[in-house]
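Tokens for chain A. Residues wanted.
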């Protein structure tokens, strides 16, 4: 007689197996149907101890009947599966049907992004029909909006669309009140890239335009200010067109106010930001926008502006500026008697002084030869480094690295120089974990030939934190060729985490590395059949493969893997060799009927036309008395010629 604990463990194992099969097959596939039948049987046993079964989800643990389950990989994997889909809890109760279980797994198999964008698993299940013995509670999305990144973008898209579709005035008002804070988390550049979020935001603004015009205008101005601060926006025509669709009904005063706000509040606003602004404003509106901007400058009084803002006005609107439109703003400023802004003079600009000091330190370090003085200069560079790193001034950092390399060549080894080199190296290498890296930092990153953190830190981030970025994996194999075995060891330990392994495969797929195929082959060796099949699909999409590797699978692999291996082959000679391996088989007295029947099933399922002549040849060489094989050959021939 099983105990409750044993019944629960068996149920969870069966749940995981069924999930693996729904990822791989359709809901009608015999393997998945069989796994659901097994799960239902295990569930009925568990219900004799515990009904309803409430599974409460944490990021890396499950809470069931007051007990926390987190010690073994199975518990953590299921917790991650649920948590990624923003599930707070699942309830299953006695009497649950096969159809209800199949529906649950169909929806669980959807990508997390699709689940979130659809409003959560509970919404998806409700849309499919009433479930009497299965219910799901989703996490509170409004709480999740405090996060960052792509997940927040998906959640925001759903909540905007949902609020507008339901005409939920209180929720829409909440969005309007927190619009600026949301744009801090989801940048306009991200909105441009996401068609669904783009459409949801337009619906939201259209609703405001109709029901609360004041809020609508406020949100439009906020969006424009966020656009001007977002360095991720490329001012190509398609992006400009999308942005202008949002900035409807803005007046010249709105444009002038937004330009003023960004100049006085954002020290990183530069000529490229103004160039984008200039393209967003209709050309015939610029004179009036410039005049209103100059009035704001006059009311503020240029003498009361911060030195940084004064410098910014001078830089953007100086007479020799490459942007012709800036001359319109320069003339407007001159017309109100503020021309002294453009005159040379002594301005105590703390920001500029700090930058000058940083460059002076570089000159000193480059020229200094006395170790004690070198130590002092390096100490000062270490002290200013935090600000440099925070500002991400690529021009200065590039100069700093050039100086460091020059001093390395001279053999400088003082303690503070070593500290400085380590801090800079760690900073540059940290970009390997960022999804989007500017061209300048990407070039610096590609020049890294020695890690400042070590192989174990890479393995920890990839396998423990799940940061399976293509750049990071490529960097690991480039920097730690002697540690590849450790990578595959960690992969073996995580082989049951299907989503993690699939993420690594996806990352390797887009890697720009000659080691791509060998990495995939090594992952293949450490994986179960489900992951192996995914790897073969990736190889098929790449259009390049190791012939002997594929032929070995066709020769010794399971029927399931042989089928995927056949889809990889693209060369006619390779296809012929594969068919010979499958059908030119000695079969005395029908001893190898089982093998030939299996191979016939493979080409039939794939509708593999290349096999037709070999099936015909097998038909001619099969004796009349071998009725089972001859009958099957005839069926396959008909299918291949259909």
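Reply:
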């Amino acid at each position: 007689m099983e105990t409750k604990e044993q019944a629960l463990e068996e149920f969870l194992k069966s749940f995981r197996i069924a999930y693996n099969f729904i990822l791989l097959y359709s809901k009608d596939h015999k393997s998945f149907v069989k796994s659901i039948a097994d799960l239902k049987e295990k569930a009925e046993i568990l219900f004799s101890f515990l009904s309803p079964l409430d599974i409460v989800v944490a990021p890396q643990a499950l809470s069931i009947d007051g007990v926390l389950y987190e010690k073994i990989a199975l518990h953590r994997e299921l917790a991650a599966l649920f948590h990624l889909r923003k599930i707070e809890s699942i309830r299953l109760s006695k009497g649950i049907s096969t159809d209800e279980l199949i529906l649950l797994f169909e929806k669980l198999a959807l990508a997390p992004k699709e689940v979130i964008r659809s409003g959560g698993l509970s919404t998806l299940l409700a849309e499919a029909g009433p479930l009497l013995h299965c219910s799901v509670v989703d996490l509170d999305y409004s709480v999740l909006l405090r996060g960052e990144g792509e997940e927040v973008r998906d959640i925001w898209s759903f909540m905007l669309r949902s609020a507008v579709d339901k005409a939920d005035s209180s929720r829409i008002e909440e969005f309007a009140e927190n619009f600026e804070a949301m744009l801090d988390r989801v940048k306009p550049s991200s909105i441009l890239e996401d068609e669904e979020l783009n459409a949801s935001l337009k619906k939201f603004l259209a609703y405001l335009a109709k029901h609360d015009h004041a809020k609508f205008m406020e949100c439009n101005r906020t969006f424009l200010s966020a656009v001007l601060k977002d360095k991720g926006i490329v001012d190509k025509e398609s992006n400009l067109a999308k942005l202008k669709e949002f900035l409807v009904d803005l007046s010249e005063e709105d444009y002038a106010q937004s330009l003023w706000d960004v100049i006085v509040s954002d020290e990183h606003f530069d000529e490229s930001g103004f160039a984008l602004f200039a393209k967003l404003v209709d050309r015939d509106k610029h004179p009036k926008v410039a005049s209103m901007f100059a009035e704001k400058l006059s009311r503020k009084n240029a003498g009361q502006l911060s030195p940084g803002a004064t410098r910014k006005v001078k830089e953007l609107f100086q007479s020799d500026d490459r942007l012709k439109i800036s001359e319109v703003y320069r003339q407007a400023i001159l017309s109100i008697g503020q021309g002294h802004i453009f005159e040379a003079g002594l301005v105590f600009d703390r920001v500029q002084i700090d930058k000058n000091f940083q460059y002076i330190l570089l000159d000193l370090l480059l020229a200094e030869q006395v170790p004690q003085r070198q130590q002092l200069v390096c100490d000062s560079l270490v002290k200013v480094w935090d600000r440099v790193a925070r500002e991400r001034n690529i021009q200065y950092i590039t100069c700093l690295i050039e100086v460091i390399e020059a001093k390395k060549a001279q053999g400088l080894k003082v303690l503070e120089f070593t500290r400085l080199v380590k801090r800079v190296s760690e900073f540059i290498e940290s970009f390997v974990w960022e999804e989007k890296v500017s061209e300048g930092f990407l070039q610096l990153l590609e020049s890294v030939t020695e890690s400042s953190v070590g192989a174990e830190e890479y393995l920890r981030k990839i396998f423990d934190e799940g940061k399976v970025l293509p750049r990071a994996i490529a960097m690991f194999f480039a920097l730690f060729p002697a540690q590849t075995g450790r990578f595959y060891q960690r992969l073996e330990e995580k082989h049951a985490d299907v989503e993690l392994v699939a993420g690594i495969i996806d990352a390797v797929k887009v890697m720009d590395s000659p080691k791509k195929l060998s990495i995939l082959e090594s992952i293949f060796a450490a994986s179960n059949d489900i992951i192996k099949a995914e790897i073969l699909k990736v190889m098929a999409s790449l259009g390049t493969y190791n012939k002997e590797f594929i032929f070995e699978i066709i020769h010794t692999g399971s029927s399931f893997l042989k089928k995927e291996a056949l889809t990889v082959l693209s060369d006619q000679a390779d296809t012929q060799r594969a068919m010979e391996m499958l059908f030119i088989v000695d079969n005395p007295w029908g001893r190898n009927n089982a093998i030939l029947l299996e191979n016939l099933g493979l080409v039939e399922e794939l509708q593999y036309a290349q096999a037709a002549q070999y099936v015909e040849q097998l038909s001619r060489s099969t004796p009349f008395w071998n009725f089972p094989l001859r009958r099957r050959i005839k069926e396959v021939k008909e299918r291949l010629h259909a």
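Confidence is low (pLDDT under 50) at residues 143-149, 344-348. Strands lie at 53-58, 61-64, 67-69, 87-92, 134-138.
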